[in-house]
Predict the 3D structure of the following.
Amino acid sequence: MKLSIFITLFISISTSYVAASSLDPIIPYLSVHSQNYSATCPVNQILHDLDGDSLSRGEFAYTHNQLEIGTELSGWTIGVFQRYDYLMQFSNDTARYMYQKNNDIGIDANEEYEIYLQANHLRSNGIGIGYKYSFSEKLSSKLRLNLLRSSDMTDGIITGDLSTSDDSYSSDLELDYVYGEDSILGRPPENISGYGYSIDIDFEWAVNDNLNMLFEGRDLLSRLRWDNITATQAVATTNTIALGDNGDVDLRPAISGVEYYKDHTQKLPARYLINGRYKVTRGYELGAEIFAVDKYIFPRILANWNYGELYLNSSYDFKAEAIGVGFSYGYIDMQLKLDSLNIEKANSIEFALNFSYPL
């Protein structure tokens, strides 16, 4: 019901407004955005099943990657995109256990592991329709509706405990998740299909000649509907299994549960950005910024320079310990943020490229 109202509103306004503004230039654009962060290890190490150096303490990892092409006309934008998103939240014990298991180190004896892993993963494509409206010369807003289609997802949680002694261990785990491919219990994959939407909202406010404020909200409201999707609810219990000389265990738990089909609604983690920039001199400004994904907050400071058509910017992210640099010139804008010049060692990797050219 909510989605149909938004679609009707966008279509009715765009038809009348674009028809009245047919002389405005058409501006095709290309946008690439890749944002990746891991609190425990380099992003590259996650992609290689944690193979590598020991992990730092941390409780989440996320990524948002999106490629989009589209066009802008009279304040309206319409684009087609592909995107890949995940947010993984976990306990330190879970990360430590997975690292030891994947690197054949053997789990620690006489330890209590608190197992917690919540995963929200989605690969999708779709269409985005947006409109920018100026309330006045100083205040503007942009509303965007993203229509999503997906055939690849995971949404669920594993919780429980694992206890070890000198020569044995026991575990009690609960699993509840929906998926396209079961990577835990090996259920044969089946074709799935989900449809939904997400909504983005921006506000930009020139408070005075020197101070500017910006708010960007991505996926502030989102719903993806999956009908008759594969799902599993199970309890896995293992008691008094011997440990090997190097701590290896042969995990063959007694599993009781059900594999079934269900209707499921998936929500994407919301992303927010709030920043303020103050013009210190004619070509130089300082600022502060807060970026957040779900409940995780990244505070940043900014310094920007302007030389005619060339705009240079820099930033430092205190949580990710990452330095960002970028530039805008003419029809191109590029940004890069890293916490290490060695990509394979970087826990934070962000890249953005925007290109547009008026016809």
Observations:
- The helical segments are 2-20, 43-47, 92-102.
- Residues 240-247 have pLDDT under 50 and may be disordered.
- The radius of gyration is 24 Å.
